[in-house]
């Protein structure tokens, strides 16, 4: 029996485990950021062939196709296309660099075709991964433990724990990591990785009310390079603003701040697209260190692996 493991039961790890039944998933707290008290920004199930097949398979076809419209702020008014120089100005503000990537600003799209499930809207994304977690648990693939150490030379994983679990060590044949490279490097200190190459900038998120009822003009989210916020996303019952620096106010655009997460080091400055390190395969945005990677790219990568 092969000893194959996936590190992390966030979206990437759950997609991989669903298709790769000979792997076990290690995560003490599955779903990660999907358990946050509010959605911190656009979470869309893009309508690709592989994503459509996956969702129909686990939800029995109870789906529909919707269009998310993206706006770009100019002089306080959202427009369908960014003005000349917008992208460079936005990237310099959010990443502190003049180097742009094709994936920045939703890959320059104005509309994204995506899948919603049943009567759900913004909850569709989390619903998929909650369902995948249920399936993986039912198969006995989930190991709900913390990892203390990964020895890439001897190919072992040592678990943290209490009582009899302290120091429990297993050998591995194959490992897929879906966790942030910075976290992985602490678990596997002997890995060949130079962390100075993997820089991040901070992001702040603010959940607000709809106290200021604006004409949305059909936009689902809007980018801005000129205001204190850099993106705002309209959900059914609240707005989420993103910013680089903390916004020291109880209101944003007259909308009351209800909850916030500040100074989160999650903005990738420069994508690297890491395939593997010391034999450990990387899967997911912060594992591959690639800003472009979203759920549909993860799914495509996994399907390619098993084809």
If you had to describe this structure to a student in words, what would you say it looks like?
The chain has 307 residues and is of the alpha/beta class. Helices cover 24% and strands 29% of the residues. The protein has helices at 11-19, 49-59, 86-95, 104-107, 124-139, 181-187, 285-288, 295-306; strands at 4-7, 23-26, 63-74, 77-79, 111-117, 142-143, 147-151, 156-159, 169-171, 174-177, 200-208, 221-223, 231-234, 239-243, 251-252, 255-268, 276-277, 280-282. The strands form three sheets. Strands 3, 4, 5, 11, 12, 13, 14, 15 and 16 form a nine-stranded mixed β-sheet that branches. A six-stranded mixed β-sheet has the order 6-2-1-10-18-17. It has a three-stranded antiparallel β-sheet with strand order 7-8-9, with no helix packed on it. Helix 1 crosses helix 5 (124-139) and helix 1 runs parallel beside helix 8 (295-306). The longest helix is centred in the middle third of the chain and has 16 residues, at 124-139.
